[in-house]
Design brief:
Largest sheet: 3 strands, mixed
Strand order of the largest sheet: 1-3-2
Number of helices: 1
Number of strands: 3
């Protein structure tokens, strides 16, 4: 498992991996407490098989999302 990718936006993680010649598969899950919520920034929550498989979830980014809060 790679520990340098979790927390990164998906696009940035893909860019890093592309420079290493890796094209990951992506699995989506729900962020804690956001099972019914939609929207936000896709971020890596886990990177398996040296980055060949990423698990991502949508997280609200208050700055990017205009100050929205989950409520």
């Amino acid at each position: 498992m790679r520990d340098d990718l979790p927390g990164l936006p998906l696009d940035l993680a893909r860019d890093i991996l592309a420079r290493e010649g890796v094209s990951p598969s992506v699995e989506t899950t729900c962020a804690p407490g956001r099972r019914d919520a939609r929207g936000g920034t896709l971020r890596v929550v886990a990177a398996h098989e040296d980055g060949r498989r990423l698990t991502v979830a949508e997280f609200l980014d208050p700055i990017e999302d205009g100050g929205q809060e989950n409520g």
